[in-house]
Design goal:
The complex is a heterodimer of chains A (378) and B (305).
Chain A lengths: L3 H25 L2 H14 L9 H11 L1 E5 L8 H11 L4 E5 L5 H10 L9 E4 L1 H6 L4 E2 L20 E14 L21 E3 L7 H13 L8 H12 L10 H6 L4 E5 H5 L8 E4 L4 E12 L5 H11 L2 H9 L3 E2 L2 H7 L4 H6 L6 E3 L3 H18 L2
Parallel strand pairs in A: 1-2, 6-7, 9-11
Antiparallel strand pairs in A: 3-9, 4-9, 5-7, 5-8, 5-9, 5-10
Helix pairs in contact in A: 3-11, 7-8, 8-15
Chain B lengths: L1 H7 L9 H7 L9 H21 L19 H33 L6 H13 L4 H12 L4 H10 L13 H25 L3 H9 L4 H29 L3 H6 L7 H10 L9 H27 L5
Classes of the chains: A alpha/beta (378), B mainly alpha (305).
Chain lengths: 378, 305
């Protein structure tokens, strides 16, 4: 994955061979040359206006006929339905779903490893930390509905844009445990050996957010995660902290009956455990949005941009809502009356205040967790 | 295995005849080594060099020694301490318990049902690590596991009065023992089986006691192979990853988990090259253990030559 010095030469040879193979294949097909003119335009297009109309964009994307997506688990925030709808609407475009379970960091690695090849991912779906660190790999593009997206969620030039997200929540089996009304409830003996977080915060984005949420709920700020780390230290000392990684299986079996995770992921557990409930604590909520971005070296630049327009359409924004996630255009759609109000009403109530960490805060918290986390929970 | 040969034929002097024969005709003999050498280079030497080499470059691919400083980081040192402790404890317990099982099986007929069954089961269980083993433990002695619940209902004893230790280092040790003991059985049983009954008879005939036999004959003969098995168990535990990853997900307490964090973290970015340095540290630890083993074995085997 990351052995640049030693592996460069064999990789270069491989890339050369592949490039040769591709150019040979290119000679055989006359259509490749015909599409080349529009392809150059598509790669530099920053909005729908550069194509003309939506119909022009659709035509350009259909001419490419392909779209490579990566790291989109079909059970994550309703991605399965979203992908199926795209395939149904544009049957001329073949979607290749690469490594659905890859992490955000691995998406960028895949783009580097496949640079210049037609197997490179066209679009990314990224956590904020990874998106902020890799803006030089993205093409700026503003979807037609860009104005509806809150400024806090989007990079101003459209290099990456928040799409769907939610609040850090506590999911619990209501048949076995009382509803937690504050974090300190979880320190009580009733929750002995029951509380887990989704991964190690020095490693997984959602676990990182759990510690951030504990920090702001305990009077801290995002500038300093210490109160959050201390909370989990106390939870561990009380014998309530479970260090096993919760999965669908451990939740279904009852081994991890109380789990810190994004509300849309906790909400999905009701299908396995009917008594599973999701609580977003009142006060300060910790929100996290996943971001869409276009690979600046996308092999199918028009299809990549069509995918963005599609994702921010009313219909797909409502599909996120169906998956329990909050779409980026939610406020504007509520005003316009295009939101699915029944689905919106089913979401956990949003806390009065919402915080999202900046890049500097993320980096500082990551460093702090690296130093303190392991000893805090030992 | 050389140890075994000596045990089987203790009287034979070191057969030094083949050496001059090989030296006289250097010709094509080395060709026979080629497939194995190619295999070792391709699957052991190259990956090791690449992995360790990655520790000496920075994010842009230029040479640096900065990553080495991480080996002095207190957290990394703790991880190495934990790894060594887990490996040592499970290797010693595994070796002692495994040796006792072997000794008990000596009393059974070699082709009997029990011995065959234990042999077969050991062969399977010695390879039964990873996520499967972790889930077996979670289902059996997890906080809601079958055994845990039964114990609590029948006897009122709670396994987890002071917190769930299964998902911590003690749990990792329990999990490792499940494959360490059988591994000891399959590696040590052949050595033990090579102890000839005639030696005991000779010892007793000459007025020795059974305890004296073990002290003066059995243990010295078996010591080198026991130590070799112990070393194998240590290395086996030291390099295990998947079982611990599935059980103890918080804090990356052992070195292989630290390597995982450095390679795949979404939250602490840009530490991929640290993994190479950690790998180097692991190689050094195993090299030291191998060196110690070589010293001890030379001493233990002195009387045999």
């Amino acid at each position: 994955m990351s052995f640049p010095k030693t592996s460069r030469r064999p990789l270069a040879a491989l890339a050369l061979a592949t490039a040769a193979a591709i150019s040979l294949a290119g000679c055989a097909g006359a259509s490749a040359d015909a599409a080349a003119g529009s392809t150059t335009d598509a790669a530099s297009a920053t909005s729908l206006a550069d194509f003309g109309t939506m119909a022009d964009l659709e035509a350009a994307a259909k001419a490419e006929g392909k779209l490579n997506v990566i790291a989109l688990p079909r059970t994550w925030a309703n991605y399965g339905e979203v992908l199926d709808l795209f395939a149904q609407r544009y049957p001329e475009i073949t979607i290749t779903e690469q490594s659905p379970d890859a992490s955000s960091a691995e998406e960028i690695q895949a783009a580097k490893a496949n640079e210049g090849l037609d197997t490179a991912p066209d679009v990314f779906d990224l956590g904020l930390a990874v998106a902020l660190q890799n803006t030089d790999r993205f093409a700026a593009y503003k979807v037609a509905t860009f104005g509806d997206i809150p400024a806090a969620l989007a990079e101003p030039s459209g290099l990456f844009v928040g799409d769907y997200g939610g609040y850090m929540s506590i999911g619990y089996d209501s048949a076995r445990f009382p509803a937690p009304t504050s974090l300190s409830d979880l320190l009580k003996p009733a929750y002995k050996g029951a509380v887990a977080i989704n991964g190690d915060p020095t490693q997984a984005g959602s676990a990182f957010a759990a510690v951030g949420m504990a920090a702001v709920q305990n009077g801290g700020t995002l500038d300093d995660f210490t109160p959050g780390i201390e909370f989990f230290g106390k939870l561990n000392a009380a014998g309530n902290f479970l260090k096993v990684d919760p999965t669908d299986a451990t939740i279904a079996s009852g081994e991890t009956p109380v789990v810190f995770d994004w509300d849309y992921l906790n909400a999905a557990q009701t299908s396995a455990v009917p008594t599973w409930k999701t609580v977003v604590l009142p006060g300060t909520g910790y929100a996290g949005y996943y971001n869409q971005a276009i690979n600046k070296d996308a092999p199918n630049p028009a299809a990549a941009r069509l995918w963005q327009e599609f994702l921010y359409s009313d219909e797909v924004q409502n599909l996120w809502l169906k998956g329990g996630a909050r779409p980026a255009r939610m406020d504007a759609m509520t005003t316009a009356g295009t939101i699915d109000s029944a689905l919106a009403a089913a979401l956990p109530t949003a806390p009065s205040e919402t915080v999202v960490p900046t890049e500097a805060q993320s980096t500082a918290a990551g460093t702090l967790l690296g130093q303190k986390w392991a000893t805090a929970v030992q | 295995m050389t140890v075994l040969d000596r045990v089987v034929a203790p009287a034979a002097p070191e057969p030094s005849a083949p050496a001059p024969r090989g030296a006289a005709r250097p010709g094509w003999a080395w060709l026979g080594l080629l497939p194995f050498a190619a295999y070792v280079v391709l699957f052991l030497v190259v990956p090791t060099v690449v992995a360790v080499g990655s520790g000496f470059v920075d994010g842009h691919g230029s040479f640096t020694l900065d990553n080495l400083a991480a080996l002095g980081d207190p957290l990394v040192l703790t991880a190495f301490g934990n790894s060594a402790l887990v490996s040592l404890v499970t290797a010693v317990i595994g070796a002692v318990v495994g040796a006792l099982v072997c000794w008990a099986m000596l009393g059974l007929p070699e082709t009997g049902v029990v011995r065959t069954a234990v042999d077969a089961a050991s062969g399977v269980l010695a390879q039964f690590g990873g996520v499967m083993l972790a889930f077996v433990l979670i289902a059996a002695i997890g906080a809601q596991g079958v055994v845990t619940v039964l114990l609590r209902q029948l006897t009122g004893i709670s396994l987890y009065e002071n917190g769930v230790w299964l998902y911590d280092l003690p749990g990792v040790m329990v999990a490792y023992l499940i494959f360490q003991v059988p591994l000891m059985v399959i590696t040590f049983l052949p050595a033990l089986a090579a102890l000839k009954p005639q030696w005991v008879e000779a010892h007793l005939t000459l007025g020795g006691t059974p305890a004296g036999f073990w002290r003066h004959v059995g243990m010295p003969v078996l010591a080198p192979s026991f130590l070799a098995s112990l070393l194998l168990l240590f290395a086996n535990a030291f390099s295990s990853y998947a079982t611990a990853a599935a059980l103890a997900s918080q804090g990356s307490q052992i070195v292989p988990l630290q390597i995982r964090t450095a390679l795949t973290s979404e939250t602490v970015l840009g530490r991929e090259n640290l993994a190479g340095v950690l790998a180097l540290g692991m190689i050094v630890v195993v090299a030291v253990v191998m060196g110690l083993y070589a010293l001890v074995q030379r001493r233990a085997a002195r009387w045999q030559s």
